[in-house]
Design goal:
The protein is an alpha+beta fold. It has 2 domains: 279 residues, Alpha/Beta hydrolase fold, catalytic domain (Rossmann fold, 3-Layer(aba) Sandwich), CATH 3.40.50.1820; 259 residues, Neuraminidase (6 Propeller), CATH 2.120.10. Helix content is 17%, strand content 35%. The chain is built from 10 helices and 36 strands. An 8-stranded mixed β-sheet has the order 1-2-4-3-7-8-9-12, sandwiched between helices. A 4-stranded antiparallel β-sheet has the order 13-36-35-34, with no helix packed on it. Strands 14-15-16-17 form a 4-stranded antiparallel β-sheet, with no helix packed on it. Strand 10 and strand 11 form a beta hairpin. The longest helix has 15 residues. The protein is elongated and about 90 Å long. The N terminus is likely disordered.
Length: 579
């Protein structure tokens, strides 16, 4: 069966890289006199925990210029080693156009069946076309460490650089989609050569061009190749999809290049012919010229809210991740956990209460939640003004400008549906909406016209009109459309805040998503290390700094060109078109 697997893999490889009449290789792709070429290490990897049961063939090319002592750059190939890459890379290393690099290539994984061993499960499209972090995690945590356990025939150890600036990834067809997805999702690769990329409906990679235009640009350099006779199937049009990707790159300001070829077919010899020039472009100016966007994005919202040279700043670590960030509307940010609330101030944490403050309301009134007992409403000094008994399980609350709060939670622990209550300025608790699936956080528009409700297991968010008189919630609609990563069944929204210009900021599995007044996710800000934000709040005197608590226990802050909603400021005038 192992021989059958290898033959199947090699058959695919040969189909991709067959020689075609009329295609003449340049000298870069041919062996040259005076250039010493390296060696291949052929092996098999069958010990994956991320893709259990899979077998894959591995080919590691170690150039002769590698000394076995210093960490080398690395280029990862999908579907095996092609483009005549071993020859090209050795030639370009010799001419000092690229750094010394080790090439790591592997077949997709296969799982052998017990009843018919000649009918294996192929993992290729699952591993390559799925735009999730899993395959990147496999490379970084399993395959590359396995490669580093190998030695050359002459006893050289394989030492691969851990720097993003020293890593490249490439592939053809689904392998190209994989290369993009790995670089995009891991932050560990800075150079991508995509030939005939499958940015189509095979799985989820058809959405990549849209995400490129919405995300804050990443430090990745790209080279794309396709042709007018590229593949066209029920899954989509590869030629159009690659044009869309190039347009998205241009829109977002990336440092990229492309070669679209008249009459070129899917993964024909053109992908090999242009490989030397692709390598020159991707590694230009190494190591000083690290990949970075070459100009500002055309994304209007990103350009509105981002402040030049103001990135995420780590301010606290080792924080309990299920805590809640709360703004006091005067620039201070509170951190509330199950049994205490502290003030985030400079580099210090100062105790405010031994109870959980879940919202700060009008005139600095504080809403305290006591699990399984109810609420306390206190003044700014912590003196209790009112106690309200309730056994509800509360997840979040938001204050209104004219007093009172909306509170979301569940009637009983374990309920699948959520309820929204209104706690009036006279401290009466009134149910306003129920049977909402998994809603866990609320936000009020700056003008208090609309209450927004978001949940963990959906990609949509609700919008309700707030009745000015009795605070009823009217005309609810699934108004927001939120992006979710492929590995998630919901957007995993856990926190939401609004600014004075009609935008809504969401803590989601994709990072901070910023929606316009019409409910569309228009900008996405990924956190350092792709950490997942779990709670957000506005802070600082100008209310223009977003504080973000992440699931890894880190708190970041970022200055933005906006103003968060505040009960202490005049009601904003929001005027937005119909979209």
């Amino acid at each position: 069966m192992e021989r059958g697997l290898l033959i199947c893999f090699l058959s695919f490889f040969c189909c991709m890289c067959h020689a075609q009449a009329g295609h003449v290789l340049t000298a870069d792709s041919k062996r040259k006199a005076g250039v010493e070429y390296g060696e291949h290490i052929y092996t098999r990897f069958a010990d994956s925990k991320l893709f259990p049961g899979t077998i894959r063939d591995v080919d590691v090319y170690v150039p002769a210029q590698y000394d076995g002592r210093s960490p080398a750059c690395v280029c990862v190939f999908q579907d095996g080693l092609f483009y005549r890459a071993d020859t090209v890379v050795s030639n370009l290393i010799e001419s000092k156009e690229i750094p010394v690099m080790i090439l790591v290539a592997a077949s997709p994984g296969w799982v052998v069946g017990d009843f018919d061993s000649d009918s294996p499960r192929s993992n290729r499209t699952y591993e390559y076309d799925t735009p999730s972090p899993r395959f990147g995690q496999f490379l970084l945590e399993e395959l590359l460490p396995f490669v580093e356990s190998l030695k050359t025939e002459t006893g050289k150890s394989i030492i691969l650089s851990q720097s993003r600036n020293d890593r490249m990834i490439t592939g053809c067809s689904s392998g190209a989609a994989c290369a993009f997805n790995v670089a995009w999702n891991t932050g560990s690769f800075s150079r991508v050569y995509s030939s005939c990329g499958s940015f189509t409906g095979l799985r989820g990679s058809y959405a990549n061009a849209t995400l490129v235009q919405k995300y804050e640009p990443k430090p990745i350099r790209f080279y794309f190749q396709s042709g007018t006779h590229d593949m066209w199937t029920s899954f989509g049009d590869w030629w159009s999809a690659n044009q869309e990707m190039v347009r998205a790159m241009d829109f977002a300001g990336y440092d990229f290049s492309y070669k679209f070829i008249e009459n070129a077919e899917h993964c024909d010899d053109n992908v090999t012919l242009i490989f030397p020039d692709a390598m020159r472009f991707l590694w230009k100016g190494y190591p000083q010229n690290e990949p970075a966007p070459r100009r500002k994005t055309r994304n209007f919202m990103l350009n509105q809210i981002l402040v030049e040279d103001r990135n995420f700043e780590l301010v606290y670590t080792d924080i309990e991740a299920n805590s809640l960030l709360v703004s006091d509307h005067s620039g201070n940010v509170l951190l509330a956990s199950s049994d205490a609330t502290i003030l985030l101030k400079g580099n210090t944490l100062r105790s405010v209460s031994d109870k959980k403050i879940i919202a700060v309301g009008k005139a600095h009134e504080m809403l305290v939640y006591i699990p399984r007992k109810g609420f306390e409403v206190t003044d700014s000094c912590g003196r209790i003004k009112k106690s309200i008994k309730s056994k509800m399980h509360v997840s979040h609350a938001v204050p209104l400008r004219d007093g009172g709060y909306y509170v979301v939670g569940k009637q009983h622990e374990g309920d699948h549906f959520s309820t929204i209550w209104y706690l009036s300025a006279g401290y009466e608790l009134l149910e306003k909406e129920n049977n909402l699936k998994s809603i866990c956080t609320l936000a009020l528009s700056g003008n208090n016209n609309w209450l927004y409700a978001f949940g963990y297991d959906t990609r949509r968010g609700y919008s309700y009109k707030v009745d000015r008189n009795d605070k009823s919630l009217l005309y609810g609609q699934e108004f927001f459309y939120i992006h979710l990563p492929d590995q998630c069944d919901g957007a995993e929204v856990t926190s939401a805040v609004c600014d004075d210009y009609g935008r809504t900021y969401l803590a989601t599995a994709s990072g901070i998503q910023v929606c316009d007044y019409n409910g569309r996710s228009e900008a996405i800000l990924p956190l350092p290390g792709n950490a997942k934000p779990v709670s957000i709040a506005w802070g600082e005197e100008a209310m223009n700094v977003l504080y973000i608590l992440c699931d890894n226990g880190n708190i970041y802050k970022r200055e933005l060109n906006t103003k968060g909603t505040s009960l202490n400021a005049p009601m904003p005038i929001i005027r937005v078109g119909a979209g």
